[in-house]
């Protein structure tokens, strides 16, 4: 921007210089052009890298260590399932896809890492039902019995209390439910005494963080396959058919 002239100031006369600028050589043009391309490419690559960092990806080792139970063979397609025991939509998901997941696991076609979240604790009558149910699942998981875990997992959602805070299931009742599915007396005591609630709460926090990295938000039910969110979870078990067929 040019400066305003001051009143009364003399205007200098133009002078003719003997120096005349010459056009840059073609070599210099190529050099400058090449530098510009490198700078632009660097900005583009850097932008993509930072964009990827902003989106984030779940840490597979963290997902493994924070899971409540891992079932199925190691060489099978892997999914991560995130649920809250008090979530009504999770109950619907279990009703629609639970039998298909169990069948695929039993047939050696699927590997599942179950993650039990607890963000609905405050919606329960006792204020801690999700955490206690997660602790109960963790106690059952200690037996390393896939059939037992899947039976108890299904029974837990079938017996789900109301989310409006009017119903709850005590820890001894959770222990009795586990015993009905074949859990040992030691596991029943583990549930009754809430021995694994603190561990379950810690796992829930880590699992929530990893889900948020991968999906951008935390919600249940959620499923990750190859670290990416799976769509259509409430449209029946078609989403699982696609994974088993290698289409997603």
UniProtKB/TrEMBL annotation:
Organism superkingdom: Bacteria
Single Gene Ontology MF annotation: oxidoreductase activity
Pfam families, alphabetized: Thioredoxin_4 (PF13462)
Transmembrane segments: 28-50
Domain Thioredoxin-like fold stretches: 67-235
Cited InterPro entries: Thioredoxin-like_fold (IPR012336), Thioredoxin-like_sf (IPR036249)
Region (Disordered): 1-23, 202-231
Compositional bias (Polar residues): 13-23
Keywords assigned by UniProt, alphabetized: Disulfide bond, Kinase, Membrane, Oxidoreductase, Redox-active center, Signal, Transferase, Transmembrane, Transmembrane helix
Family: Belongs to the thioredoxin family. DsbA subfamily.
Official protein name in the record: Serine/threonine-protein kinase PknE
């Amino acid at each position: 921007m040019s400066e305003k002239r001051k009143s009364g100031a003399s205007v200098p006369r133009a002078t003719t210089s003997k120096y005349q600028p010459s056009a840059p050589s073609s070599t210099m043009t190529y050099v400058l052009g090449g530098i510009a391309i490198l700078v632009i490419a660097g900005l583009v690559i850097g932008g993509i890298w930072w964009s990827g960092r902003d989106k984030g990806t779940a840490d597979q080792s963290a997902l493994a260590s924070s899971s409540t139970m891992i079932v199925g063979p190691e060489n099978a397609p892997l999914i991560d399932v995130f649920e809250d025991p008090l979530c009504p939509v999770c109950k619907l998901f279990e009703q629609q896809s639970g039998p298909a997941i169990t069948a695929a696991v039993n047939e050696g076609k699927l590997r599942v890492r179950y993650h039990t979240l607890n963000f609905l604790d405050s919606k329960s009558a006792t204020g801690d039902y999700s955490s206690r149910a997660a602790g109960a699942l963790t106690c059952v998981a200690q037996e390393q019995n896939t059939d037992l875990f899947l039976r108890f997992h299904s029974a837990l959602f079938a017996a789900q209390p109301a989310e409006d805070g009017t119903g709850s299931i005590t820890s001894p009742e959770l222990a009795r439910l586990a015993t009905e599915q074949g859990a040992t007396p030691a596991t029943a005591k583990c549930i009754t005494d809430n021995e694994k609630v603190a561990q379950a709460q810690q796992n829930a926090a880590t699992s929530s963080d990893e889900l948020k990295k991968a999906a951008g938000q935390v919600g249940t039910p959620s499923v990750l396959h190859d670290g990416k969110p799976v769509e259509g979870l409430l449209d029946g078990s078609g989403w699982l058919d696609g994974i088993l067929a290698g289409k997603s």
